[in-house]
Amino acid sequence: MKRSKLVFIGIVMVLILTQACTQNKPNATNDLDRKVDSVLSLMTLEEKIGQMTLFTSDMDQTGAFIRKEYEEDIKSGRAGAIFNAYGVAYTRKLQEMAVNNTRLGIPLIFGYDVIHGHRTIFPVPLAEAASWDLTAIEEAARIAAIEASAEGLHWTFAPMCDISRDPRWGRIVEGAGEDVYLASEIARARVRGFQGEGIGSLNSVVACVKHYAAYGAPQAGRDYHSVDMSERTLRETFLPPYKAALDEGALTVMTSFNDLNGIPATASKYLMTEILRDEWGFEGFVVTDYTSIMELMFHGVAGDTLEASRLSIEAGVDMDMQAGFYQKALPQLVRNGKVSEELINTAVRRILKVKFMLGLFEDPFRFCSEEREKTLVMSADNLEAARDMARKSAVLLKNENNLLPLSKDLKTIAVIGPMADAQRDMIGSWSAAGDWTKSITLLTGIREAVSQSRIIHAMGCTTDGTDMKGFKEAVDAARQADVVVLALGENYWMSGEAASRADIGLPGVQQELADEILKTGKPIVVVLFTGRPLTINKLQQHAQSILLGWFPGTMGGSALADILFGDFNPSGRLPVTFPAHVGQVPNHYDMRNTGRPFDANNKYTSKYLDVPNEPLYEFGFGLGYTTFEWSELSVNQTSMSEQDSVKVSIQVTNSGLMTGTETVQLYIHDPVASVARPVKQLKKFMQLTLEPGQTGVAEFYINSLDLSFFRADMSFGTEKGNYMIMVGPSSNTIRSAKIELI
Ligand code: GLC
Known about the structure:
- There is one protein chain.
- The N and C termini lie far apart (75 Å).
- The protein has four domains: 1-42, no CATH class; 54-372, Glycoside hydrolase, family 3, N-terminal domain (TIM Barrel); 390-584, 3-Layer(aba) Sandwich (Rossmann fold), CATH 3.40.50; 628-741, Immunoglobulin-like, CATH 2.60.40.
- Helix 5 links the parallel strand 2 and strand 3 (109-112).
- It has a six-stranded mixed sheet with strand order 11-16-15-14-12-13, sandwiched between helices. It has a five-stranded parallel sheet with strand order 4-3-2-1-10.
- The protein has 742 residues and is α/β, with parallel strands linked by helices.
- The protein has 23 helices and 27 strands.
- The protein is 32% helix and 18% strand.
- Residues 62-63, 113, 157, 210, 289-290, 497 line the site of alpha-D-glucopyranose.
């Protein structure tokens, strides 16, 4: 029998003995801790540090370089975790290396960026946020977890909980937009989906809250750039979604690349210990982002490997992703007395605990089931769920004269533009193991939806090239058509990591193409594919209809065709403001009023000389194919105490001809407080799906927590006085009522 098997049996015997003799020890914590301590007691310093080391395999590349020796690292116990490796056969092979070659046979944990689906790819996270459908968002994460775990994965590096108010930043695509409340609720839903039936269930994966903290606010929207913000902004706007995900039970946290007010997150004891552990009580483990420990040297807070490693372990970082610095430096730091071995033990306990919770010590191969891999991945139900989410994520931005929905009896439809048949782009960035060759493009979706119509396809131009030779073919196609569907936008790689854009207009010569097509006078429906808000002012001005499809995932083309031809009434609402000009950025709905709020009749008020203050499309905006009538807002009482709550209700009637879903949004404003408060903040929302003629009632209960904020002295709580309650279908379309906190 292999040596390591004997050792493994030894571990089990130690566990049983330990269990027996500590059974009644008064200080014995719990069974899991006892098991972890039993294994820890057997480990050498190098074996402990191996557990704190995460390397990528060469199956996928999500960072600068790939270390080729990862299999040697596994066999030698120098790596206890591997990412970017998936598939039952491959993860089994690597797990066998760990279990059969290392002295103690401690199993590996496998992580991967399963961000918006594993094989079945859902719309990008920002698109999912536009659905405002927390049940569907949770279901999408649930399916991702089932598919990922069926392919041997234990851990996903998601949800990304970074608030972002800067569309120049490419990773805005990965989050849930600009709003604290919506992003927090979505973070919770995603953790519920990933960790589902509990860690240890075969259908669950460990969630990882990232990128902690405030990575979404880089200077000038430039990825990896410095972040500077007040304590109030940090705590009021950027921290809540991370906290919400942890409150939902997420077991790991990933440090962010950025410095926060000059201290790199990976070296920040304030973030990694004082807030995360001492204030929030987090007990899982912290992993860095890709080579972040090494990057402390570029930040300029560490002069060498030893210093960078010491800063990180002392800040509270448990696992080193891809730098290999812990592996190189920690043994020497401990032996020289520069770092206490107790810090190492604490980190290793946290990591081993998660591996025990996953059941990997009982059976390191429990996630390696060929049967599950064969039956659970890209099932018809999963694909239908992805199509449903893509329908719910799309946002109808304009629909002049109700051009949409299109008739299925149209004789000729021209489908023009670089995004019409862009199969790879459909699944967007961070699409993990998604197979883009299986994604449905808009062109395919339209062809399948109206097989009797004549479909003429012309690319016209590429997304970012300058060549206009294709314009003629495109204009000719338009001239032959009853309607033109113009598919424009960004490529998938123009958003995501290391993909900031200073100009957020349509790339290349797409606007010039649109101008030529507009000259034909044909009715034009623009379908926009993008991972960020774009300044599409000219399209808004001249195209009859605009449908925002984002990057809609594997089933995107089918879902968008469902909307174009009226098989689904679009219900998406913007989770992020679309600025009218990049010069307005940051331009978010919940700004403060300033001492000189804009007044068109007063020069000396807050505005620009050359562009409006208003965005192109506001947070919460979206149109549909039906109409809704709203009653006045009613409150059951006009004052409340701290212990009280006020019931707010409003009636919504579907006054149109199609069933539709309205997202009722409730905002709050505190007009006079010890600090200037945002002009409005989203605090509640709910969705009403109403048949034609049906009336629904949206009811909300406002309590003192909803009215609380960080006061002038940074204490968190309420202040007595008047509050405005505003309810409506968007942040700019509201009915209001006043209540008083007494
Ligand atoms: C990347 C990303 C992070 C990802 C990690 C592993 O650089 O910043 O979001 O989880 O590396 O791929």
